[in-house]
Amino acid sequence: MTEKNSVDFVRQIILDDSESGKHQGRVQTRFPPEPNGYLHIGHAKSICLNFGIAQEFGGKCNLRFDDTNPEKEETEYVDSIMEDVRWLGFEWEGEALFASNYFDQLYQWAVQLIKEGKAYVCELPAEEVSQFRGRWNEPGKNSPFRDRSVDENLELFEKMRSGGFKDGEATLRAKIDMSAKNMYLRDPTLYRVRHAHHHRTGDKWCIYPTYDYTHGQSDSIEKVTHSVCTLEFENHRPLYDWCLDAIGIFHPQQIEFARLNLTHTVMSKRKLLQLVESGLVDSWDDPRMPTISGFRRKGYTPESIRSFCAKIGITKTNSLTEIGLLEQSIREHLNTIAPRRFGILNPIKVVIENYAEGESEERDAINNPQDPDAGTRKIKFGREIYIDREDFMEDPPKKFFRLAPGREVRLRYAYFLTCNEVIKNDAGEVIELRCTYDPATAGGKSPDGRKVKATIHWLNADDAVDAEVRLYEHLLSFENPGDMEEGPDWLKSINPNSRTVLNNAKVEPSLASASVGESFQFERMGYFAVDMDSTAEKLVFNRTVTLKDDWAKTKKMK
Ligand code: ATP
Ligand code: MG
Q1: Could you tell me if 474 and 450 lie in one domain?
Q2: Which one in 148, 211, 302, 407 has a CA-CA gap of 20 to 30 Å to 6?
Q3: In this structure, are residues 552 and 324 in contact, taking their beta carbons and an 8 Å threshold?
Q4: Cβ pair 243, 217 in contact under 8 A
Q5: What is the model's pTM?
Q6: CATH number of the domain where residue 519 is located
Q7: CB under 6 Å to ligand 1: residues?
């Protein structure tokens, strides 16, 4: 069980409640997504918190879809949300729940509120409702419909329900206080008319309850003890409490925490939908998207996301978290589990002139230095190999220690190699290097103590396998998403170099049988996961993350 003093404030409240015997020590939370998009990394924070609390306190966490907006919601989103929660490693008890399951009960409670003089049907048009609401420093005005009789209200609410009003012609409002300091208490809307088809209730309803009227009552019906949500709902809490008390039902406690904001990342589902619809990304699970499905496709593991969420903790003040911290979490996890392989992103052919034609041999390579049980593998070495273009320079600057004309380097797990001649095409591009190797340096050790300053990776040319490799940069050019353009122009904030596709990569032959989602470290190049676009002809890899935090480095250099 969690220790006092080392826990966040939400867990502290729950500990205190358990100790004082509130709810007889019962702990129940819920994760309440609106099914209007795919889940993003911010949702992961809320999932880890809500399901995590249930696990730690021997309680239960419901998955409840907040499906009160018929127009924007789709079954595709419901399915993806369930898949993502499970993939993160959490399971809800029983069926997934829907706020729409409670539409009948919510309707009955609305009728009860009308009968008790706590709600009325208002026919002010939307603009006037907002004018009448006043401003934060100036009281609002009562609606001319506020003092209707109970009978008239019951009749009009029934008219709303049975389709007698068009969209926007009438609302049901709580009768609270038009001069309340808290704007949410100025006769908030409980029901609006929407002649729209709902993904679960079909055409049964043409009135739909608002979020504020639905959420607390749904929590209450499910007997949620602690309703944990993000800070923007703090001002809604008095209304949450008002509804439960006015109806007179079980009263869960709403607790607010700071949402996750990440550098270089947009996190609103509305904006993410725009990215998908505008074609700036391929889909919701495009590896550039901050969605859980995007991270999964990019090669992130559930463990890495959970450990990131544990590291950032739960606080009550909004802040901006470095995306580098998330990247560090996946690096740390893959470092322990990902097999090492050689992959050449931009190959250049090397002919080893003193290696006999038609001959070859096998070299031993370590599968994972972090995992002694992972053992070694054989990789073929012969007269023609590939090295990465980045590891050669014809005219190297002082600090470049890798291959260059007349220079000797170590081929990892193989031999020392010296470059003798550079072959170019008509356009002046280097297309081949003519080299020699030193057979006395097997295993990369020189018998005479000769030193080389660099070790590079390589692949045997005749059995290397073709691959496409996709490299990613941050989706958003701005570090702080708050600095983004407002309005429709915000799409200009997208980094035009967010994806680079390399078509001629080469990888070790053993990777031909790798399955979608499998992760590898390509030595020196980063961690890569097999993408679902892979075919029998061509493997496709996504770079999950580089080996080091290059971005932080370049930022410092600027
Ligand atoms: P968005 O603003 O991105 O569209 P939302 O708040 O509308 O998100 P919901 O589907 O209503 O999305 O969210 C479900 C739950 O996830 C809510 O309890 C919400 O508070 C929480 N949540 C959403 N975004 C974040 C975030 N960035 N950090 C932590 N929790 C979040
Ligand atoms: Mg929402």
Answers
A1: no
A2: 302
A3: yes
A4: yes
A5: 0.95
A6: 2.40.240.10
A7: 32-34, 42-43, 45-46, 66, 229-230, 259-260, 267-269
